[in-house]
Every structure is written in structure tokens, then in C-alpha cells.
Amino acid sequence: MSMKKWTDDELMMTHEKLKTWNKQVGSAGSKLWLFTAFLGAFAISTGFAFMFFDGVDIMSIALIIMGTVTCASWYMSDKRRKDNIAYLAEINKEIKSRKLKPSTQSEGKNDGETPQTSHDPEESQITKE
Description:
The protein is mostly helical. The chain has helices spanning about 10-55, 60-100; strands spanning about 115, 125. Helix 1 (about 10-55) packs antiparallel against helix 2 (about 60-100).
């Protein structure tokens, strides 16, 4: 998907969404997911060790399955996080090439739905951006 065909509004909206996602995830989230992946790997190894020493039973199979699901969900989440970060960098590159200024949430955004009035007393017309 080429971002060259995107409008400036679409580009800025996607940039804002990914920026807020990046702030929400933070570094604590990735550390927690890494800890979860280690727990999944520990569950898999424990399940195989129990199978080796005690034979095949339902508990060791359940440990292996739960560990596999946990490691798979960590892998998919980490892959999605890396893809989103790379996509955000690509969007930033496109914004720089268009020489746009990324807007912040603290600025009063006008979505075009509400008219903006002029504060000049001589000009009493309603202007729409």
C-alpha cells in the first residue's frame, strides 16, 4: 500500500493513532510480554520433563499446550508491535517528505464539522477551515 496516494488528513489520522498506541504500549508492556514468553517456555519444558519422569498424563500435555499457546501469542504480539513501529517510521518519513507538521492532541483540532468564528471585531463572518 503506497502512502503517496493518501490524503494529508488520512496520513495525519493514522500517525496520531499509531502515536497513541505507541504511548499506551510503552516499554513495560513489552517487558511483561517477554516475561510471559519465558513462562510459556518454562511450561513447555516442565511438561516434557514430567512426561519423561512420570509418563504421559493429562497434566503434562496440558502444560505443553498452554505453554505453546502462550509462546505463540507472545510471538504474534511482538511481530505486530515491530510491524507497527516500522509502519510509524514509514509514516513519519512520508510526513517529512510532504513537509507537514504533525499535530498534537493538545491543539484544538477543527474537524470541519463546527465552524470557527473569527475573534476580529471588524470581521463578524463565520469562517470554515
